[in-house]
Fold these 2 entries.
Entry 1:
Amino acid sequence: MQEHFDAVVIGTGPAGEVAVSRLAEQGLRVALAERELIGGECAYWACIPSKTLLRTPEARAGARRAAGVDEPEQHWPDVAAYRDFMIRQLDDSEQVEGYERQGVTVIKGAARIAGPGRVEVGDRVLKTERIVIATGSDPVIPPIDGLEEAGYWTNREATTVSELPSSLVVLGGGPVGVELAQLFRRFGVDVTLVQSPDRLLNREDPAVGELIGEVLAEEGIDVRLGARAERVRRDGARRVVALAGGDEVTGHEVLVATGRTARVEGIGLENVGVEPGPQGVPIDGRCRAADGVWAIGDVTGVMPFTHVGMYQARIAVADIAGGTAEADYSAIPRVVFSDPEIAAVGLTQEQAREQDLDVVTSRVSLPEVIARPWTYERDPRGELGLVADRGRGVLVGAWAVAPLAGEWIHQAALAVKTRTPLAVLLDTVAQFPTFSEAFLKGLERLEF
């Protein structure tokens, strides 16, 4: 039996959910196919649980750094219980009911594109003129000898754990590795972080990794840079990770945080003439992958952030509705919810030079140039870096490692997005005392 829909959305992480809701709001008859839980990785095993868990030790550390405040106690069972509330006890029944009330047909199961305008989910055949692929991504598991036999965690086990291990080896020093290493250390776990490149967060400006590396080391995390894991073995209740060069590190658990890969296998891309590239499903500026097929979110490999997937969903739905909007990724903010927070937008200075821009940069220590860090905490910290194009007189990138950086980086994001002239930015007044005042100091130090 065949069923006809105006649109079928495959996968309902944040990107898929935005697409489903907006398509339904247009009056289209929509079906969603979800093989796991509506809400996807972000809602249950990544963004939401990790940021919920990070908040408690962040608040405790904030109290420690503030003047005249006793350091509060933290209670893991209560934190874990609130985390379970936030991830809905891994139950999406309310989401299913909510979509059904909107008139959306919810189908649980693995979907496969069987041909143009045809999606199969189990024994159901869905006919449609519009297919939206939002299948997300899976963790990359490096081919390390003995890893599978020894056993390991991914972000899923780490963010839903009930009992804390006494020690943990984190493989990978990207955003996930940095966040979770600090999280577990602040709950009393002995943490070793192993990073193959010679700096943390190696896709950002070098200063970013250096600054957060110093923080992690101060908190007692054993940070191993330029260290490659070659083998893993069990030794009783512990895992032993052998590193290139002969060193070994041990932990009761090993957390793999070495990146993610687009989930493209088994979804029938070949049946609509789509061949995935190294990053995922190739798309154009309107998120089109083929005639009548759109792809959004992590599956595209285009800056795999939740907010990018949601943005792509808006672009795709606008295109379906006959609009002309095209995606612009030039000013997408990137935030690591460590303490202090790490935020960046636009190009790094290395990327800017690779594009043959006439690059000029500046870097300021916040406590040296503005008052807000001193009112915020004792022994204040924080740095801001700016990257500008001298030729056009515009900001092309920025980074900050500082309290609440994820909130105030958006001032730079707007400047990069709109190509606001530096003269206008220099004439913009920020509230006193705020962290945003640092932008003026950074702009003034750009040498033209």
Entry 2:
Amino acid sequence: MVNLQEEEDLFKTVRVSARRFEESPFLKRQNTEKMIRGVYANRFFAVYNGEDPLEKYWTLRRKALLFDVPEKPIEISGSDAVPFLEKILTRRVKDMRIGRGYYAIACTPQGCIFMDGVVFRFDENHFWYVQADGALETWLVAHSENFDVNISDPHSRVLQIQGPASIEIMKAASHGQIDETIKYFQSGFFDIGGQSLYVSRTGFTGELGFEIYCDAAKTDHLSLWDHLINSGEIFGMEVSSTRAMTMRRIEAGILGNTTDMDIQMTPFEVGFSQFVDLDKEGFVGRDALVKKKKDIRLLGATCETRIPAAESKIIDRNKIVGQIRAGVPSPTLGLGIGYAHFYDSGEWCGKNLELRFQDGTRHRIEIVDLPFFDKTKKIVKGDNLEIPEINNSILRLIQ
């Protein structure tokens, strides 16, 4: 299943039985007749809820948004939790500190990307892997033979508060327990409105932000929602579907599993070499990865005249050399942007090429490195607290 969230996808809707998929415990606080939901990791989530995505985008960049997201934690515990994760993940985990999170990838035996997500260490032999879209739990069980591990679903629904005001909001929500001293990818348990919840300084937007992990039936979800809304109101926080998140995360070069990268692509070709430790023996896919090319074939494309659309073909001197994986408007840049996947290695960055849309029209694009801006991640790390001015020049492309 591919989770595209481009404009036209909002109108490709079908009625689906809800029995297979998990409903959000926060639905009562955000449901409207205009809500269009997607399915991700077997969970429903709001792709659109009648809002103006451009207005929400600027609230995200200038204040904060609250997102009910479908990412799914899986719990791995037991005496062999560490060696098991060393086998599953391409990144070394045995030296992780408790209360720390790592972005980590799981590969197929062929050296291609099966799953990505964030692994958190709760205790010496107790971890959560917060997965993206895909059947991770089944994959883990299939590889668990001869390991003393317990693999389970903690039934934790995740909320994200993202934007420059997020630290002040979380400070208010936690009565000062959470503040600027909590660094990027740090985590721990905190009292949020009288409930002990796991919180990490992470997110999916490229903005400064936090994720809050519920504790299954122990959590009073609606009380938590109301407490966060009350804590964020004074700082201008609003609730949003994921449309604004999608625009911002693509600007930030954050990839979506099964959408921007998939089981046919290696970590190297999407620019993830830093998350593959080839010095670590025995992990799934290592032998294949040793033999793979290290060239990056997933880059950015910018277009001044149209928003790149998924599956549009990239043309170089009348030859198809790649395609767009996902495209969105970039309000900050005032351009259409997208992920450009090239079929072969080459010196693509900096080139001006053509993009052929499915309606046959062609538009000029420029190939650029990712992310599209904030390349040193100063925003998400809190090193750049400048509030951007609103720029609605992108309206010329989306109206």
